[in-house]
UniProtKB/TrEMBL annotation:
Pfam families: DSPc (PF00782), mRNA_cap_enzyme (PF01331). InterPro entries: Dual-sp_phosphatase_cat-dom (IPR000340), mRNA_cap_enz_bifunc (IPR017074), mRNA_cap_enzyme_adenylation (IPR001339), mRNA_Capping_Enz/RNA_Phosphat (IPR051029), Prot-tyrosine_phosphatase-like (IPR029021), Tyr_Pase_AS (IPR016130), Tyr_Pase_dom (IPR000387), TYR_PHOSPHATASE_DUAL_dom (IPR020422). The active site is at 167 (phosphocysteine intermediate), 332 (n6-gmp-lysine intermediate). GO terms for biological process: 7-methylguanosine mRNA capping. Residues 141-212 form the Tyrosine specific protein phosphatases domain. GTP binds at residues 337, 352, 379-381. This is Tyrosine specific protein phosphatases domain-containing protein. Residues 1-47, 228-268 are annotated as: Disordered. SUPFAM superfamilies: (Phosphotyrosine protein) phosphatases II, DNA ligase/mRNA capping enzyme, catalytic domain. It comes from Triticum aestivum. One of its GO terms (molecular function) is mRNA guanylyltransferase activity. Residues 1-19, 232-246 have a biased composition (Basic and acidic residues). The keyword Transferase does not apply.
């Protein structure tokens, strides 16, 4: 009976020679899915494979390349993988616990933030373009605030945790942010800050436009700008694993930033919005600083009220005030009212809505070796002056000093 079934099977499927074996699909191009089609291999960023994983800490900030989740495993050999779990294990072996991760990439395809939050690590996304543009000023403000706030929360701890910062490769955008942080908290020289980052994360920032932007932002004119060459691991190759032309992945989404419109000096007005926005949490902190410098205890709705002096209409009811109190007569500027809070990490304009915007200005103390003003509050007006010979220039006219270097002057009588 068994032999009969074998002969019947042979008649139904005649042996015409060796059957062709199905062609094996290489894993480095595509993998076959359940319905017989193909899916694309999730490609790693250009140069990521050979890029060093991380650098040495800078004020408890660890520069790193982006970790990739397990969906990239088909294109990354086991010895080259760098996931969030591997980041945590590597840093713990070095005696560092990560408490905050700041992601500067301009995409969400590399990993899910839940990989960090589910283990109790805070994750902050600050999306920054990487190609044809440096990070925007508001992104820098957010970065510096998040790091400072985290460090402040860690002060009571005997073993403060670290901040992991990454873009795609952990050099240009990451270095740009860390240099800004150093300039606003510790250093007064862009060159020194660049050198520190290059030592801790070789070769440092290797994009010339990033380095030039840092010098320009902090009003420094270097004798010369030395930019490290592009690392070997970042040199472009011809094709990716899917057989397509590979592009520079620094921008992550491949979108070019629009060229900024040239600023026309003749177009400036008193109604222009000045400075860069700050995080809402930071604005609340800055409001509290102003109240403290003014010896003012807010309550309820007063938290959002402009704390500066207000004009008093000169009518018959208020005319008696001129007899009761000393007063000064002064020229009335035709501008926009702003208070100015001068801090070590920035200068903040405060409008009549009690909103803060950061402008890049630093005020050195008379003895330059003593550093810069910190917790100084002044009142004044922003005006637009006509320049002899043509053109317009913005000026801030300061006419009242409320506090200087954390010393309140609101109760000091004028002499």
């Amino acid at each position: 009976e068994r032999e009969e079934r074998r002969r019947k099977l042979k008649r139904d499927q005649p042996d015409d020679g060796p059957r062709p074996r199905p062609q094996q699909v290489r894993n480095d191009h595509a993998t076959q899915n359940k319905i017989g089609g193909y899916k694309r291999v999730k490609e790693t960023p250009q140069g990521w494979m050979d890029c060093p994983a991380s650098g040495q800490p800078i004020d408890k900030i660890i520069p790193s390349k982006v970790p990739l989740d397990e969906t990239f495993n088909e294109s990354v050999p086991p010895g080259k993988r760098y996931s969030s779990k591997q980041v945590v294990n590597k840093q713990r072996k070095a005696g560092r616990d990560i408490g905050l991760v700041i992601d500067l990439t301009n995409t969400s395809r590399y990993y899910s933030p839940a990989e960090w939050t589910k283990q109790g690590t805070k994750h902050v996304k600050i999306a920054c373009r990487g190609r044809d543009a440096v990070p925007e000023n508001e992104a820098v403000n957010t970065f510096v605030y998040e790091v400072l706030a985290f460090h402040e929360r860690q002060k009571p701890s005997r073993n403060p945790k670290y901040v992991l910062v990454h873009c795609t490769h952990g050099h240009n955008r990451t270095g740009f942010m860390i240099v800004h942080y150093l300039m606003r908290t510790q250093l007064s020289s862009v060159t020194e800050a660049l050198n520190i980052f290059a030592q801790r994360r070789p070769p440092g920032i290797y994009k010339t436009d990033y380095i030039q932007a840092l010098y320009t932002f902090y009003h420094e004119i270097p004798e010369s700008i030395t930019c490290p060459p592009t690392p070997e691991w970042k040199r472009p190759s011809d094709l990716d694993l899917n057989g397509e032309a590979k592009q520079d992945d620094d921008d992550d989404n491949g979108e070019s930033a629009p060229s900024p419109d040239p600023v026309d000096d003749k177009a400036i007005t008193n109604d222009d919005v000045l400075g860069d926005a700050v995080p809402f949490d930071q604005q609340d902190i800055l409001r509290g600083i102003c109240f403290k410098l003014l010896d003012f205890v807010p309550n309820g709705r007063a938290n959002a009220q402009f704390p500066g002096s207000h004009p008093v209409s000169l009518n018959s009811e208020n005319l008696q005030l001129l007899r009761q109190r000393y007063y000064y007569a002064t020229w009335k500027a035709d501008g926009t009212r702003y208070m100015m809070l001068i801090m070590r990490d920035g200068c903040f304009l405060i409008d009549r809505n009690f909103c803060f915007r950061r402008v890049q200005m630093r005020f050195p103390i008379r003895n330059v070796n003593d550093g810069f003003h910190n917790f100084t509050l002044i009142d004044g007006e922003m005006v637009v002056d006509a320049i002899p010979g043509g053109g317009l220039k913005r000026r801030y006219l300061a006419y009242d000093l409320m506090a200087i270097n954390f010393s309140s002057k609101v109760k000091v009588e004028a002499t």
